[in-house]
Write a structure and sequence with these properties.
single chain; alpha+beta; Glutaredoxin; Jelly Rolls; 11-stranded antiparallel β-sheet; 6-stranded mixed β-sheet
């Protein structure tokens, strides 16, 4: 979304702990074009936008573009600098990243979205911004415009071709199930008795699953932003969703050394290898996910959108369930 030139000065970075690269300030970057990227490493929408931001870094860093990542944690584990550093290294983020654990820079920009991109001209004014996915061609065009203001003779590449059909500006995207959160602050549960907020309770699976919410069966501790498997007895979560791809944000119990294991079913049957996500392994005909660090785990890539159920089973105590996110695929 383009802004009127030289009307809104970009707020300075504040409250950051630098995860990678040398610390940056907007005052120190005056004279350069700056792209500020608010993200969370376990947010699938952010990761899809990150694929474009990394390409822009490679295309324009030598033409005067400085990209600064601001990791504002959507979940509690994202405030741990070691978790963020690991993820930034694994994801190959080539630009400096500052951790914003108290949302001070987030609030300075009055930001409310993961992901969000803010383009700042060489004089330190906001000139364009974009929230969420999409708008890649429009934003890259803006990058080139402000870079030419610094160096009118700069030779710019052709605007990048969209990675998927859904990435085209103004693409008509099929509606899919929105994120399903397991914490009671943002979540919706399909069990008739609702959340037992702040306490461990036994949940019973309802006879008919509700669409686009989750149903629980077993003992869980319900917290504002997560659901914890609260004993050693088997438990399960069932979600009826309409999408192509399925991603789970989860973590093992940090106090336990043994691995936490999940079993994944779709439409009541073991998940077949042909549609399994990268996090899934197969043993004895079962689709299993072994949880490592707190992260986003790709579970399913169906190849097309449609109404289905996904069931997540576990007997591992202390597993932390944060969110399931979905994608319409390519």
């Amino acid at each position: 979304m383009k802004l009127k030139p030289e009307t809104l000065p970009a707020p300075e970075f504040t409250g950051l702990r630098w995860v990678s690269g040398e610390p940056r300030t907007l005052a120190g970057l005056r004279g350069q074009v700056v792209l500020v990227f608010f993200f969370d490493y376990a947010n699938e929408n952010c990761l899809r936008v990150l694929s474009y931001v990394k390409v822009w870094h490679g295309r324009y860093v030598d033409k005067g573009l400085e990209i600064v990542g601001i990791h504002s944690p959507e979940f509690d584990f994202g405030a741990d600098i070691d978790n963020v550093r690991r993820a930034v290294e694994e994801q190959g983020v080539p630009f400096p990243v500052g951790l914003d654990p108290e949302f001070k820079t987030w609030d300075a920009y009055a930001n409310r979205f993961w992901p969000a991109l803010y383009l700042i001209d060489q004089r330190g004014f906001l000139c364009d911004y974009h929230f969420g996915e999409g708008g890649y061609q429009e934003l890259e065009t803006s990058i080139q415009v402000v870079l030419r203001e610094v160096n009118p003779r700069a030779v710019m590449p052709r605007i990048i071709e969209p990675f998927t059909a859904g990435d085209v500006d103004d693409a008509k995207i099929r509606p899919i199930t929105p994120n399903i959160y397991f914490g009671y602050r943002r979540g919706r549960i399909g069990n008739p008795d609702g959340f037992h907020e702040g306490s461990a309770a036994r949940y019973a699976m309802p006879p008919m699953p509700h669409k686009d919410v989750f149903q629980a069966d077993g003992t869980f501790l319900s917290l504002p932003d997560l659901l914890i498997h609260a004993d050693a007895e088997p438990a399960r979560l069932l979600l009826s969703y309409d999408a192509d791809e399925v991603f789970l944000v989860a973590a093992p119990d940090p106090a336990r050394e043994e691995p936490a294991v999940l079993t994944i079913l779709q439409d009541g049957k073991p998940l077949p290898p042909a549609i399994a996500g990268e996090a899934v392994q197969f043993r004895d005909g079962q689709a299993l996910v072994e949880l490592g660090p707190p992260d986003q785990y790709p579970l399913i890539r169906n190849g097309s959108c449609g109404r289905r159920t996904v069931e997540i089973r576990t007997a591992s105590p202390g597993v932390r369930f944060y969110c399931v996110t979905f994608s319409p695929g390519s």
